[in-house]
Fold this protein.
Amino acid sequence: MSTSTTTYAKALNTALRDALTADPDVLIMGEDVGALGGVFRITDGLTRDFGEDRCIDTPLAEAGIAGFAVGLAMQGFRPVVEMQFDAFGYPAFEQVTSHIAKMRNRTRGALPMPIVIRIPYAGGIGGVEHHCDSSEGYYVHTPGLHVVTPATPADAYSLLRESIESDDPVIFMEPKSQYYSKAELELPTTTEPIGRSAVRREGSDVTLVTYGPQLATALKVAEVAAAEEDWDVEVVDLRTLVPFDDAGVEASVRKTGRAVVLAEAQSFAGMGAEIAARVQERCFHSLAAPVLRVSGLDIPYPPPKLEHTHLPGVDRILDTIARLQWDDEPDHTHTPAEVSA
Amino acid sequence: MSEITDLLPCPEPVQLLAADGTAVPPTEQARERGYAMPAPEDLLAVWRAMVIGRRFDAQATALTKQGRLAVYPSSRGQDACQVAPILALGEQDWLFPTYRDSMALVTHGIDPVEVLTLLRGDWHCGYDPQARRTAPQCTPLATQAVHAAGAAHGLARRGTDALALCLIGDGATSEGDFHEGLNFAAVFEAPAVFLVQNNKYAISVPLAKQTKAPALAYKGVGYGVRSEQVDGNDPAAVLAVMRAAYEHTRAGHGPVLVEAHTYRMEAHTNADDATRYRTQDEVDEWTGQDPIVRLQAYLVGQGHLDDARIEQVRAEAEDLAADLRTRMNAEPAVEPLELFEHVYAEPTPQLAEQRELVRHELAASASAAHGGTETKDTQ
């Protein structure tokens, strides 16, 4: 079989299509997922081909959609819910955190929740407010949820199929800036399972740990760093935030001795902080420099004309790598003189 | 779209028995909707379950005083709503209860100790929801309404004629999920029945501060849901109205909303002080509406019930209470390592690490308890 050029969006669409074919208990639900095919066209053609009984336009109420999925899961169905945008998922927060995440535990395993909640998230697409949030932090902080965020078309397909087959609820976060990224790919494809990270570029000097919307930027940084600074950057794509691949990250950082965590989300108390803490706890004696974070700013997502100030770009990331005490000298970035200046 | 008149509740709560137990002829509209006095054997079953249910409820309240339950929200006074809708359910139907519906769960045949597990505190849900076709008691308000809608749709998709019964309180009708549950059930024509037990208070806040609706039952009409209101302290009327609702929804006509006008005789829980927000006069007035007294008077008056049978059921209720006391007085076994078992199908590597940590902590404290000479953990 030959490969063809496949977008991330098309890979997701194919995964949904294949899941509907493979299992009659799989149901797709959400706002505008029917005739329209979703605002990002991820469910394009599914209602036409599988009927509005399998790919279901629901009333416009996110808590209702999530709670309805809970009831269906109790009856053995596998709902795949689309939240139209990251911030539009917030009305469903109680259903997600109090019921979907906890039902298995509350009932000692009697009522598992095989629900996938797909969330187009993060920015970089010139979206207006409430359309660009990096909301993963809320979900990774909630025990009982798996949080998966593919960064490539192959992972988009494989991780979505695996998420739908999982008996645990999965928050499936799709970086919308990557919907039109392409790869030469043959579908179906199976990549590494949920819970494993992947080294996207091997390097020897520093590990750049990232996920989702920032993988493409990380790879760009690695090329510039090699060409201009002679730093050999290893790029680790987490793929799954929960469960977290401590072993994979640890192996890379022990090899390179330096780590920078790159996340698009606001920084404070977020996923990046968790990664930095874990690396520091596990790799302290292998580290030649403190673990640093590069992230979005701790502000509400900015208006489109200002989003490039917010998003971690190549320069901000290179500047951070430069602070990794390359000459075994103290980091002068935060000297008292500068702080008071 | 249904005719609005089909959706509208009766203008007054449906009643078949007056407070003194005399039969009330149904209104013309009630007759049209099929609300007739149930057969004596059905009413006897409701009466018996109410007597047993109330004894259970009193025993549970007593167990809080002995420290055996962390807390107990009583449903005394709502006995008719706790019993009649449950007895009318079919084998395949699903129940979505709240924290105040323990009496309903006991009526449903669930072991009282399993019902009280949540409040005793050794696990969250003590019964097997799949085996009992009963969701865990819902503590967040109204979230179970959308679960019931989804489950009802799922039951219909499976080709059964089973329905989902959602129990809910008056305060929770202000929550968004109540409205989303009604709307989803209506849009999907799901076989769901929503029973609002309007007991007049959401903890301390009276109904007048909760809504300006003429009755909560009218809230269904805007969603295209057939709606009804019933005297919730009239066991005969509750049974008749709920049966008609089940029949309607089983026939594929979509969901039904029923509001039962009743009263919470106890405080919100044993930890609450109801004297801060309601008068004794009001409580006394509702004492005169008691559902058990009402039905018992009717059944005795009709010659269906005698002192011997009353004594027999009273003894049965005492046996249940005694058994519950004995079993609840035994300290439940808890297994700390079970905390890790049901978070996911398989623990994540991070949880597995924490499980090892706890395993070591447990081993260390066991060793210390057995006079081990290990140095004490600095905790």
Notes: Chain A is about 35% helix and 20% strand. The CA atoms of residues 132 and 170 of chain A lie 20 Å apart. The first strand of chain A starts at residue 4 and ends at 7. Residues 337-341 of chain A have pLDDT under 50 and may be disordered.
